[in-house]
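[recover] target loaded
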């Protein structure tokens, strides 16, 4: 176990909970510091090279344009997504990797929820007990999605924080419901059968599935019960089977981190799959390469050790919690979010999209409770809810762009980003399509981007002060 570093008041996100010398188990949690850093993908071109002049500037420009194209299909990221402890870990690690920081965040989120165990929980609707499990399905193109890179970044940190868990409780190979239930079976005859996958009396399993398309194919086979077993696992608890290979598995705590490409997901999922209720338990997260780092600077090992120690300390405290509840201010915010997410679940009239996002409400509360637990408190605050809601909104937007790809929108957004902070006019926007689209068609696309918050429209005075002002469209996130 790494040795916790000394309290550093200059880094309030890593050590915001107690003052030096205070008892970390009894001291109340203070207010979290505001977000003071954001991933470079939200604040710069993120090219990672060059000095700003000469050949270096040309390289930066070329790589910036390339990253803009790679990320053109993604929905915008609300900076509030990173307004939590795990978000700030992803922020600190961001300069050293080409991975999407949102992908790093959700991998840490899934691992943290599993490591806490089945004790910490939140009650939804008065009767439904929800464990703090979040199942991200990370969606990105092969190569440029950097999905595996994001997992490796998170794993490196987790290996410093909870090395035994990473070695013993993270596995791949979901294939059948019976196989998953057998991991938690308690009715095996000693000395017979396969060796136990998890440590004795441990019910925590994080399934890392980098080829989720293969798992989807297995679930479609006749007689395969994996879908039904996963639905039970998301609820937490009993995975016992009553078939010819009956097993007793009364307790489980299963997390999943799944990776897939947008095309594979669209090709393999059907409306029947969505209606079955398995996929609405997942949190779809669209990712892409965040920057070019041809020769990245390695992170200081001491820094990584400190991050790991901070995470380890918080996870140990979180695992001791039981029920988490909303404080009064958060309860008021939750009433508004409950209505918002319930309305968002209609999927804009798209039945498949509606099914995919229909569990936004419990997912939001689970995530907020996880953030609270990592702050060593059983009270969910508005800070925790705000960060959780921003991530859930991003997941809804991710589902939309995965299931409803619009190449014209991607092309137009990339074109606007390439114009930089000066933006482009409606006429210049038509150049994205070599002027083969009518002004009316381009106008509808521009309206969509403005409504989605990906582009802002401002009025520019005419040159020379005469004539009508021109409307200028500027991307809300910079190139790259």
């Amino acid at each position: 176990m790494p040795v916790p570093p000394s309290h550093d008041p200059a880094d309030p996100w890593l050590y915001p909970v107690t003052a030096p010398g205070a008892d970390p188990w009894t001291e109340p949690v203070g207010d979290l510091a505001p977000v003071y850093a954001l991933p470079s993908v939200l604040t710069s071109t993120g090219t990672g090279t060059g000095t700003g002049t000469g050949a270096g500037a040309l390289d930066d420009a070329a790589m910036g344009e390339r990253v803009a194209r790679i990320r053109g299909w993604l929905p915008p990221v609300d900076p509030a997504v990173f307004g939590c402890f795990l978000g700030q870990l992803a922020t600190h690690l961001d300069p050293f990797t080409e991975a999407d920081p949102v992908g790093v965040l959700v991998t840490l989120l899934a691992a943290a929820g599993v490591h806490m165990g089945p004790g910490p929980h939140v009650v939804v609707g008065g009767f439904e007990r929800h464990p703090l499990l979040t199942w991200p399905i990370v969606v990105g193109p092969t190569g440029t999605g950097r999905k595996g890179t994001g997992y490796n970044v998170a794993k490196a940190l987790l290996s410093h924080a909870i090395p035994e868990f990473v070695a013993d409780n993270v596995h791949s190979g979901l294939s059948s419901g019976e196989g998953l239930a057998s991991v938690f079976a308690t009715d095996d005859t000693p000395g017979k059968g396969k060796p136990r996958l998890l440590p004795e009396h441990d019910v925590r399993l994080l399934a890392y599935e980098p080829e989720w398309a293969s798992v989807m194919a297995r679930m479609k086979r006749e007689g395969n019960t994996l879908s039904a077993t996963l639905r039970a696992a998301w609820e937490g608890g009993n995975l016992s089977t009553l078939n010819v290979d009956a097993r007793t598995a009364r307790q489980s705590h299963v997390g999943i981190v799944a990776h897939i490409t947008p095309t594979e997901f669209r090709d393999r999922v059907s409306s029947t799959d969505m209606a079955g209720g398995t996929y609405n338990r997942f949190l779809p997260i669209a990712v892409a390469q965040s920057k070019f780092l041809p020769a990245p600077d390695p992170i200081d090992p001491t820094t990584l050790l400190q991050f790991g120690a901070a995470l380890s300390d918080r996870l140990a405290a979180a695992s001791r919690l039981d029920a988490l509840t909303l404080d009064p201010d958060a309860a008021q915010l939750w009433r508004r979010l409950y209505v918002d997410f319930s309305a968002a679940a209609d999927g804009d009239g798209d039945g498949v999209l509606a099914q995919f996002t229909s569990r936004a409400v419990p997912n939001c509360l689970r995530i907020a409770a996880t953030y609270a637990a990592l702050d060593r408190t059983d009270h969910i605050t508005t800070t925790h809810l705000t960060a959780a809601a921003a991530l859930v909104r991003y997941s809804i937007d991710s589902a939309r762009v995965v299931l409803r790809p619009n190449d014209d929108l991607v092309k137009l957004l990339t074109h606007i980003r390439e114009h930089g902070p000066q933006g482009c006019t409606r006429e210049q926007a038509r150049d994205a399509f070599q002027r083969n689209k009518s002004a009316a068609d381009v106008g509808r696309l521009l309206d969509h981007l403005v409504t989605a918050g990906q582009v802002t429209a401002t009025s520019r005075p005419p040159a020379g002060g005469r004539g009508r002002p021109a409307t200028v469209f500027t991307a809300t996130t910079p190139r790259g």
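[recover] notes: Confidence is low (pLDDT under 50) at residues 1-13, 15-36.
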